[in-house]
Amino acid sequence: VEGKDNILQQSQERMAAMANKKAVDMLDKNDLIVICGAGGFIAGALTRYFHQQGFARIRAIDKKPLPQWYQVVPGVESLCMDLSEKDNAVQACRGAREVYNLAADMGGMGFIERFRVECLRSVLINTHLTEAAYRAGVERYFFSSSACAYNVQLQKDPNVRALKESDAYPAMAERGYGWEKLFSEMVCQEYWHERGLKTAIARFHNVYGPFGTWDGGREKAPAAICRKVIEAKDTGRMDIEIWGDGSQTRSFMYIDDCVLGIDMITHCDKLTAVPINLGSCELISINTLVDLVEQIAGVKLQRRYNLNAPRGVAGRNSDNTFIKQMLSWEPTTPFKTGLTKTYQWIEQQYYDRKAGRRTVS
Ligand code: NAD
Questions:
Q1: What whole-number distance in Å separates Cα of residue 77 and Cα of residue 56?
Q2: Which helix (H) or strand (E) holds 177?
Q3: Other C-beta atoms within 10 Å of 196: how many?
Q4: Is the pTM of this model over 0.85?
Q5: Are 346 and 227 in contact (CB under 8 A)?
Q6: Between these two residues, 110 and 86, which has the higher pLDDT value?
Q7: Which residue's CA is minimally distant from atom 35 of ligand 1?
Q8: Residue 289's CB: how many other CB atoms inside 10 A?
């Protein structure tokens, strides 16, 4: 009965997603869509998503040189520009009907706890882009915020109460990265209230999936654990290092849900300048994450807990009451399903790299 209920609920959510307005319902196929940070994980997936829907004019921008982009979509104008420079932001927005800002210097806990200055400097990107978008007469502007904007005092327990949108204030965001997001949210809100630029603001909770960072220091927990399990299997050293004691909890959203959510949030007028959670509400501990990856890989590893490694807040989950109310939808991909696809992709990347072929990380 429970299985039937789940299937019913999922098909209802799919119907609701179809009923929500999206870019295809509101734009002409020749309107210019600008996607910032497109050499990275989420904006790369968003570029592919819009391209697959037949949008003929997409401008994808990233500061990384083109050979380092995770995905280069054929037929898309792909530009290498540093958007923290004002002139580049102006050039980026010229002629655009919609602008999606997903450009930021970011990474997992290992990165954002160590490189706070880099994280804070992303404020320049959003500051220049909102002004340039406003001056260029852009109709809709999307900003990718983060669950790190929430008050850290509410995230001290692994059995955390899920975070709802009002929990960002009184503010005590994650130092560096979280404060940058909170300030940039406010910039987006005021550009709507004072200047009429329609802004959309989604607070992402950990996103994972193929074509994401999986090595090099910026990767997040699901990708890092997949890589470590693949390495352990390949080298025969059947152990794994886990950051913290493994009791930390998070929720993880599959990339396909993320791009669909971005599209629906951007085109929902009731959500103009209103920050909203975009995340899964399936709470997973790091130990459970390791269990799941071991199951997918068909191995059992000896666990070594590194209590000195960065571990972030004790627990964090997304309260999806508001998004369900607004869109009659929430991210639905079961974690095990998305993780299996991610594991398979990272495994392929791992062996491609070993064979000297080009890879994402
Ligand atoms: P990512 O690192 O894969 O992509 C970000 C891209 O922005 C990178 O390719 C980077 O080169 C580019 N960039 C950085 N500075 C730039 C600049 N000055 N000019 C042009 N491009 C620049 O990260 P992602 O996971 O795709 O994240 C996208 C957005 O979503 C970011 O704003 C991030 O803060 C936010 N977010 C992501 C997650 C997640 O779990 N991945 C969670 C919360 C929020």
A1: 10
A2: helix 177-195
A3: 9
A4: yes
A5: yes
A6: 86
A7: 144
A8: 23
Of 141, 177, 254, 343, catalytic: 177
Contact predicate 178/146, CB 8 Å: yes
In angstroms, what is the span from residue 21 Cα to ligand 1's centroid? 25
| Residue entry with tokens 């327990």 | 157
Closest by Cα among 180, 173, 97 to 142 = 97
State in Å: Cα 290 to ligand 1 middle. 25
Distance from the CA of 213 to the center of ligand 1, in angstroms? 10
Tell whether the model's pLDDT for residue 167 goes beyond 90.
Answer: yes
Ligand 1 pocket, 185 CB below 6 A?
Answer: no
Token look-up 């050293």 returns: 237
Is 177 catalytic? The answer is yes
Query: How many CB atoms are located within 10 Å of the residue 140 CB?
Result: 22
Please name the residue that has the structure tokens 């025969």: 236
The two structure tokens encoding residue 156? 């001290």
pLDDT (0 to 100) of residue 2:
61
Answer whether 197's CB lies under 8 Å from 138's CB.
Answer: yes
Q: Is 207 in the pocket of ligand 1 (CB under 6 A)?
A: yes
* Any atom of ligand 1 within 6 Å of the Cβ of 40: yes
